[in-house]
Amino acid sequence: MSITCDGGGAAVRFRFRPPLPDLHSNGYTNLITIFMILCFTSISHVCASIHDYQNETFIHRSNSFFFHGGSEGLYASRVPYINDTEDNSLNGKSFIRFESITFRRTKESAENKNMMQQKTGLVEAIIVKVRDRNNIGGAYLNSDAICCTPEHADNGSCKVGEVIIRQNPNDPSGPKRIQTFFEAKNEETKMVLQTVDISSTGMYYLYFMFCDPELKDTTISGRTVWRNPDGYLPGKMMPLMTFYGLMSLAYLFLGLFWFLKFVQYWKDIIQLHYHITAVIGLGMCEMALWYFEYSNFNSTGSRPMAITLWAVTFTAVKKTVSRLLILVVSMGYGVVRPTLGGITSKVYLLGVAYFAASEALELVEHLGNINDFSGKARLFLVLPVALLDACFILWIFSSLSKTLEKLQIRKSMAKLELYRKFTNSLAVTVLLSVLWIGYELYFHASDPLSELWRRAWIIPAFWTLLAYVILLVICILWAPSQNPTRYAYSEETGDDFDEEAVKLAGSGIKVSGDMSIMLERKDRKASLAADLHVFGGLGEDKEEDKRE
């Protein structure tokens, strides 16, 4: 299971990537167990196209031992990679390069070998595309073995001690095998520095495997470098760099529109406009940071820690502020009520909680190391964000219902029409979100091995685009204008209301008290005028007495 490396979106986004594809499709349980165990116990977050290994151990399954070295979507090279050339230009070249790969076996294993033997242990690096997964192992030999046995060797199908691979002479891009041998009693052996050219597009998996039980507890160190024709960015992330660049321009144009409106009607600005400005500014910074982060990643092969950290933080802040903006707008802030009153602290508390949970999840997704978070650990971080999102949705629609009810009672038609449009927009957004979540579940369930990796980028892109559309709707509905009073809060219209004041104590029945409040105000004014008249009359009588 792999976390999508993207910079935005309000929903949880998973991409299932088992570290070993299903080698057999005919029900061989041992091999299927490999994939299922690793699929649900390993979160493989590709933090770089440079995969580092530090004394990693091999996993025993069936009659083999294996280590998952990485998996990425790679496009075919436009220019063949030639090791002998000194050309430093890598444009158009796609490859997997093995650098300083070192295997170290135990001292006991080395001592058991013959000093006179040249080859005393074999470790194989196998590169395979998902579509060729059935060519690894003995499925075509009606066997559930992964390594060649004497019985298989007698048939001429393979060599004892090697992984069974069925080569297709008509497909030169099939599984590739690179062998490295231990010599004599040496405890270490180094893999020859070499580069494997990628001649066809696909989802590639890399495994280091051995069949000799005496090599148990062998470890691997070093790194592999994966590159696409246009850079080091993994294939499934490549379209996102272009997407974030376009979204940066979209936020720039929205910010320009808002700035012109702001300057044109600066005398008629209400408090809500400043909050909208803040969200637009955060969106511009967020998209720009993600674009530069992906661009740097594509150029160097490693994620720039500082830029990634800033991008993650801006994403968490923007998601939090965006939700708070929708919430306070739904409550009628700046339109129906001048302040949030006693619920201000609750709004702040929900915002702080969401920011903390979102920041933690974003950090895990974008700053973690390969295979360093288990499924349970990530689920622990996903659940708080999902629950807080549910709280936001319930509170938003509950507040919208109350606001619409108040506006309808007061017959504030302009504001009522405004909030009806806003409510319809949010309802359509929620419907689209539910449908897209259903599509995500279907997408991941139907593609457990990431064979559809070239379309995976649309999953996070949708949520980023949806957030932009919601902000655009708010900007259009609440844009600065010459007549802000038709939408702004006005005390004379009786907009000010206290929800607690309109409830009968102990009855649970709300009173439509807006007309009563207005009548009470009129009564107070009439009473005050009468008092002034009386006091004025008394004063005049006293003056007349003095003159007499």
UniProtKB/TrEMBL annotation:
Transmembrane segments: 241-260, 272-292, 304-326, 338-357, 377-397, 418-437, 457-479
Keyword Membrane: yes
Matches recorded under InterPro entries: GOST_TM, GPR107/GPR108-like
Chief place of localization: membrane
Keyword set, alphabetical order: Membrane, Signal, Transmembrane, Transmembrane helix
Membrane topology: Multi-pass membrane protein
The keyword Signal belongs to this UniProt entry's keyword annotation: yes
Location(s) in or outside the cell: Membrane
Domain GOST seven transmembrane intervals: 239-484
Superkingdom of the source species: Eukaryota
Gene Ontology cellular component list: Golgi apparatus; membrane
Entries under PANTHER family matching the protein: EXPRESSED PROTEIN-RELATED (PTHR21229:SF55), LUNG SEVEN TRANSMEMBRANE RECEPTOR (PTHR21229)
Name of the protein in question: GOST seven transmembrane domain-containing protein
Species per Swiss-Prot/TrEMBL record: Lupinus angustifolius
Lineage: Eukaryota, Viridiplantae, Streptophyta, Embryophyta, Tracheophyta
